[in-house]
Amino acid sequence: MIEVRDLWHIYEGKKEALRGVRLTFGNEIIALVGPNGSGKTTLAKHLNGLLKPTKGEVIVDGMDTRKHSVAELARVVGYVFQNPEHMFFEENVFREVAFGPKNLGLSEEEIEERVKWALREVNLEGYEDRSPYSLSGGEKQRLAIACILAMKPKYLILDEPTTGLDEKNAEGIKKIIRKLYREGHGILLITHEMDLVLELAERVVLLYQGKKVFDGDVKEFFELDLRKYDLDRPRLLTISEEIGLEFFRSVEEFVKALEMRT
Ligand SMILES: Nc1ncnc2c1ncn2[C@@H]1O[C@H](COP(=O)(O)OP(=O)(O)OP(=O)(O)O)[C@@H](O)[C@H]1O
C-alpha cells in the first residue's frame, strides 16, 4: 500500500506545488488528472522518492521515502516517464531491458529470465537484437514499460502512456495496463486524455493548484464540471448522453447498447 500523508512540496523555498495532499492506494488503476501545473508530476515523483516531502510523509509498503534511497524504492515503484526514447541508451533491446536487473545484482540466468518475461509481457519477443531507436512509437512505449517491469515493481506509474500513439498502438498499451492490473500491480496513470480515464480507471484523483479536490469513482468524476479544471469530457460520454443512453466505459459497450435498442 502507498500512503501519502498531508504532503507538501515547496520548490526552491517558494512555489507550493503540493499543499496537504492525502492519498492511499493499493492494487487498483487510478487516474491522476488535473490541469497543467497542478502538481501531478510532483506527486508522482514523491512515490518513488525522486522528491522528498517538504512537509508530511510518503510511506511505500511500510518504507518512509525520506529514509530509503531511490534505488530501493524503485524495486517497489516503477516510473515510466513520458517520451521514453529519451531514456534509452543501450545498443539493443535485450541490453536495454537487462540494465535494471543488472543493477539489482542478479545472476546472468535470472537477468535473462526477467528480460524474456518482461518482453513477453509487452509483446516484444523477438526484438532482442533490435536497436531501441529503430522501434516505432508504440514499440518504444512498450519497451519502456518492459524496462521497468524487469525490476518487478509492485506499483507502476505511467506518465501519459498513450499520448502521441495511433489508435492501434494505444489499444495495445491499454491491454497491457489491464493485464498488469489483473496480475496484481497497482497502477497510477497520469494523463490528460479523458477517453483513457473513462476506459481504464476505476478511481480518479483530481489535483488543482496543488490540492486534491476530488478522489472518487470514475462515474462521479465525470459528473463534475470539468471545464473548471481545463479538462475535456470524453466524446463517448457526450454522444451517449445526447442520444439518451447511460454511462459507457468503452466503444464496445456503447455499440452493444445501441444494438439492444434497435
Ligand atoms: N523544479 C522546479 N522548480 C520550481 N518549480 C517547479 C519545478 N518543477 C515544477 N515546478 C512548478 O510546480 C508546479 C507543479 O508542477 P508539476 O510539473 O508537478 O505539474 P503537472 O500537473 O505535472 O503539470 P503538467 O500537466 O504540465 O505536466 C508548477 O507550477 C510548476 O511550474
Automatic annotation (TrEMBL):
Residue ranges that the Swiss-Prot or TrEMBL entry lists as coiled coil: none
GO molecular function, one term: ATP hydrolysis activity
Family under the similarity heading: Belongs to the ABC transporter superfamily.
Record has ATP-binding as a keyword: yes
Annotated organism of origin: Thermococcus litoralis (strain ATCC 51850 / DSM 5473 / JCM 8560 / NS-C)
Protein's name in the database: ABC transporter ATP-binding protein
Highest taxon of the lineage: Archaea
PANTHER family per the UniProt record, alphabetical: ABC-TYPE COBALT TRANSPORT SYSTEM, ATPASE COMPONENT, HEAVY METAL TRANSPORTER
A Pfam family it matches: ABC_tran
Keywords, comma-separated and alphabetical: ATP-binding, Cell membrane, Membrane, Nucleotide-binding, Translocase, Transport
Chief place of localization: membrane
